Amino acid sequence: MTTLLYDGSFDGLFTAIFEVFEYKYKEVEIVSRERFHQENIFAEIHEVITQETKSERVLNKLEENIGKSGIHELVKVFLSEEPDLEQIILSAVKQSIQYPKENILQNYADPDILRIAKICKSVSRERHRMTAFVRFEKMQDEVFFAKIDPDFNVLPLIRKHFNDRYQDQKWMIYDLRRNYGLLYDLETCDFFYPDEKIDLKKYQEKFHDEENQYQKLWQRYFFKTNIVERKNLKLHLQHVPRRYWKYLTEKW
């Protein structure tokens, strides 16, 4: 067994996949250095150095076989943070090379391909809910700030949505679980990586003077327009699961 250690990046993973074929490894596992715990003392360790040229060669070949939409599905698997995501993606790449004229991502009889389909469905659902349930709060510096805590690493998937929709104001979206975020400054929309996690207690002290008033107004509006006799909690939870309530001002 050969263990390929990579830096945890998307390009790093596809560099590792390239080297699986380059060195003709048979029994392999690909693991990010962050999650590596050596259990098999007899395993050979191969350190992967990320190279965009190698990554691009694999991705270009994949695009020929499964198209850009297929690569996007593999991106979702990568962002799912599943423990065995590397092995699932490697399996898909191997099948694509073995059957270049077929869209292997439609072969649901294969257990790995079926896993990919299920993971993509879950990640897509989480992405959709993040675009629906994000709530911005106005800060003293006129920046609108939103905090999220998604089950999957969907921030890269919602970047275009918010960049296209909110171009007339500065905003930030911060992932509490992964300690990074998106920042739009009216010109560019880039990722940012703070050295330390944002202190939410101090963060609330930096609200704009208007913010608390707007929140109270929205809560009052929500309360007044609610019809108690027509309350259907079961249906409500189907559309707005309880774990998303922490984002919603009207639920506080």
Automatic annotation (TrEMBL):
UniProt cross-references to InterPro entries, sorted A to Z: DNA_repair_put, DUF4130
All copies of domain DUF4130, residue ranges: 85-250
UniProt protein name: TIGR03915 family putative DNA repair protein
The organism of origin for this protein: Chryseobacterium caseinilyticum
Phylogenetic placement of the source organism: Bacteria, Pseudomonadati, Bacteroidota, Flavobacteriia, Flavobacteriales
